[in-house]
Hints:
By secondary structure, this protein is α/β, with parallel strands linked by helices. It is built from 16 helices and twelve strands. The model is unreliable at 116-139 (pLDDT under 50).
Amino acid sequence: MYVDAHAPSHELLRNTFPYLSIHSAYSISEGLTTICSAKPDLILTEIDFPGEKGFSLLEQLVQHSPRLPVVVLSTLDSTPNVVRALHIGAEHFFSKPFVPGQLCRHVHKLLALMYPLQQIPEEENRELSEGSTKGGEDNPPSPLDALTGCSEALFQLKYSLRLFAAADAPVLITGESGSGKELAAQTLHKLSPRCNGPYKTVHCGAIPMSLLEAELYGSEPGAFTGSIRRPGHFEQAHQGSLFLDEIAEMTPAGQMKLLRIIEAQQVTRIGGRRPIPISVRIICATNRDITELVSQGRFRADLYFRIHTLPINLPPLRARKEDIAALSLQFLRQQQSYLENPISYSALLKLTQYDWPGNVRELRNTLQLAQVLSRGKVIQAEHIRVAY
């Protein structure tokens, strides 16, 4: 069902969903009547009404049919309005003008969560199948669902991940600490043709170089004191993906050896003589300005161009504040499932007024503290403690 006072908008929605039945409503009273008579599976609504009428409509729709997902379409896309709509109970907020394909995929996902796919016309299923999130053996949830939010930056990230996943070239993920680089790498692997293969992670900055080589390439007895015969992460990731986090922390000698292995797709264990063929997709990440390191001679240019084949840059949380409310609600509802609304609107709004230098990791830690301070009750603004 679609609620809006403007007839042209209804025609646009019918064109966007040619295979679904759209019931139109042009006022609050008509919308509530239509819910009772047509029994819709999902509600699309505008909130672009004078004063508080739009949010009043949203509140009434959510209260009247709490089990129906509600998607908001609006030009009122300021961060406070997005936060307020999500806090009232909207499942998603789309800015107008919206991209029809994105709206189609999201509506399809919401419907697929609630109803068997065979109830959705076959043509619609074929067109939108990659947006489905219904669980089950034949149609598992999409890995992209782990990326929560409604900002344009997040949509662009999802598009890049889906596009790059189909290729088998190295990927370099850049972004600030805590922005979700490891989650992006995991999502990329799960979307790729190698998804059934192993996924291994090595933090290049957390292991001394003398030990890092043994971790990456494996070792043979006698290679060094206490060494045993063991495969390294390259061998363990054969037919899968290897995520090299903080790649910029590797020494020049380590970078040279890594380049040779990526180029040759074979590895020789420390203390060994026999090259071992491998088939591994390399995903690298760094929170540093790697181009600046290349210009300073601190990172090999040839390795940079090899791993930079498919670049992905993760925007910091302050550049996508529209996602803060959705991220917060998702985390809190996972932790406090017994509370229908675990956080107040004023607290959500306070979260959006902070720049989050620690990004999603800092947001999650702040919410964990707020849960403790609220003693299991609804989180209020005074429970949000950030380093202003």
